[in-house]
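Two folds, back to back.
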Amino acid sequence: MSNADCPVCRTADIVCGKWTLLVIRDLAEGRARFCELERSLEGISPRTLSLRLRALEEAGIVERRTFPEVPPRVEYALTDKGRALVPIVESMRVYGREWLNEDGACVEQPEPAEPAVAA
C-alpha cells in the first residue's frame, strides 16, 4: 500500500504539524478566539497560529466565524471532521499520564504483582 493510499499516513499529514494537536485539544473545549488560543498555546507565535488555523480550516477541521462587530470578532471551532480527531487527543492524554513523567521522560510501568500461591 502506498503512503497516498494509507489512511494513517493521510491522517498524519493533517495532525502531525507542529501545534496542530494542541489547537484541536483547545478547541475540543468549545469555540475560542484567536487571542485565547494564543494565550493557551504558550510559545506559539501569532504568525504560526494563524498559519495552523488557516491550514486546519482548509482541511475542514476548523471553522472560522466572523461577527460583524466593531472591532471585528472572530471565533474558531471544530467541525464534525475536527471533533472526530478528539479521541486521538484523549488517547494521547491517557498515554502521557500513564507512560511519561512530567518532564516528558518515559517511565517503566511496574510489573503486576504475581498472585500469592497457597502452599
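---
second:
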Amino acid sequence: MTMYDARTNLSQQVVNEVRQHFPNLIYQTIIPRSVRLGEAPSFGKPIIEYEPNGVGATAYRALAEEFVQRESGQIKFINGTTAR
C-alpha cells in the first residue's frame, strides 16, 4: 500500500479492507505519504538517491526485501498470515 497516512482513519480502513479481501496478494510493507517522495521526481532522482535515509526510501527498501523474500519462497502467506 502506498501514500499511507497513519494520521487518518481512512488510510487505516483502506489497508484493513484490502488486506481482508486480498490477504495473500498484498505486501505487509506500507509506503507512507511523504513530502520527500513527492519532491524526488521533480529533481529527477529516485527517492533512494534523493533522501536515502528518509522514511520513504527506508520503506521502499523494506518493500524490495519483502518482494525478494516472497519470490524466493522465504516468506509464504496462508490466509493473510506470514509463514517463514
